[in-house]
Amino acid sequence: MSMPVFNGIDAAHQITRQVVGTRVLVVSMHSEDVYVARALQAGATGYMLKDCAADELVKAVASVAAGQPYFSPAIARVMLEDYVRRAGGGSVVDRYDTLSAREREVFQLVAEARTTKEIAELLSISAATVETHRARIMQKLDIHNSAELVLYAVRRGVIS
Hints:
By secondary structure, the protein is mainly alpha-helical. 58% of the residues lie in helices and 6% in strands. It is built from 8 helices and 3 strands; from the N terminus they run H-E-H-E-H-E-H-H-H-H-H. A 3-stranded parallel sheet has the order 1-2-3. Helix 1 (8-18) packs parallel to helix 2 and helix 5 crosses helix 8. It is elongated, with a radius of gyration of 18 Å. The N and C termini lie close together (9 Å).
């Protein structure tokens, strides 16, 4: 998912959009359901983890090349758990999606370890407004400190 210039999701989207009929197999270290969902939404046909055996990679490439979806067992389990969670409790809202566009900007900059003053200057807002956004972000994401915020940002793919 973390690559120079494009992230994996953007690359999958660009490839499948620009070259009709191309199939994308995502090979990633990330097993969280949000990554899998975003890859599929971007047009990926398969998703597997980097720590797979060589024969599994060959099987996955052959499957995707033949137009069949492929998900490594660990990813299939994640997808099943996500499905069961959604089916059992109604629709699940991704907390990140509750952030406003400005809150996402502030979130990105905070995760990049920018100071309140730097963020205020970059976004042309007051330091107090930055702190208000930070408090709302942490409340919406149920995050309690900066370390959790950075960990969430890494898992989310906002920073690498």
